[in-house]
Amino acid sequence: MTNDRRKRAERAEQMRLERAKADKRQRSLITVAIVVVVVVLVGLGAWAFSSGGDKDTGPLVTPKSLTSDGGIVFGQEAATGTAPTNLNPVNVVVYEDFQCPICQIFEKTNGEFLDQQVRDGAISIEYRPISILDTPSSSRYASRALSAAMCVYEDQGAKAFSAFHDLLFANQPKENSDGLPDSQLADYAKQVGAAGAGRCVTDETYMTWSLGTSASTAKTKDAEGKKVSGTPTIWVDGKAVEGPEQDGQATMAGVADIQKAITAAKL
Predict the structure, then answer these.
(1) 13: domain CATH number?
(2) Total structural domains in the chain?
């Protein structure tokens, strides 16, 4: 075998190995997604009965300026500070829980792509954060984190909320732990420019509202009548987007799945 042929063969083998590694990583992500979705679905059985009314959480204070479905719209103008170049971006809805492990995986896998799509004006994201995973925490972390996120939004708007959202997932505490203390959440608020939200965070101003998001979201359906059955749930142009099925279970949507849905919505 000549040197050129040997080099070509070596390159081909290296490419094969890299593809195999990539396939293995993807299979691992899919497996994790299936396991976590099943766990979350078990917990969702009690959604309609878990509004938190039996807990002393203070008066109900509802965040202002949310959409009618409790969402926060993050578009090109908010992301870049400039006038939008597209007045009709595709609407992408994201349901997440700040304590949800698969939501963290979703953000690691798709977050950069979605952020770039927003900056380019191709899409707007409507965040609809909910709290359904208080049980694994000894301090109702999911609801406390959501309450803190609303404080940031009320203080500095959608861009600060998006940055705070990213910080929470980058520093997501382990399940069955106390979660992050309110003092740490207040510090994160300061880091994203919402220093004025500190008192709101430590007072857990939106705690009662946060506890009620699970029951209200359990009744929500997409344009095809499909209910929100777990987190993360992604809608593009009103329709749920999922990854390919494995062993009869839907998997987490990836960049390719979301891009395909965005492209179809533009037609």
Answers:
(1) 3.40.30.10
(2) 1
